[in-house]
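seq:
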Amino acid sequence: MSVTDHRRLGVAAGAALLTLTVAGCSGLGRTAVGTVAYETGRHRHIQVSNPLVTGCHRLAPAGAVEISNSTLVDMVLYRTPDCTGHGTTYLATTLADSPAPGAGPWRSYTIVH
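struct:
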């Protein structure tokens, strides 16, 4: 095997390793560009800018009785503080929603990515 072949093999292996490394960490630190704004059951207006696309995001303890998704990605709303359970609501980008009467407020959300 010549020196040129060794270099090509080394470059190919390095490129493959770099691609795997970047793909494995691509979700870290990424944000949903835009804002999530909501009103609590106590009539407080809260706005969150550029939330992370990973994890469960808790809303204020009183929950949200109206929410607006002004990010570039969709989100899922939950009635529990830990993003579990039934009765979720899918909220597409640039839309707003409020819970049905008697359903109770939303308490957390996740970003669809």
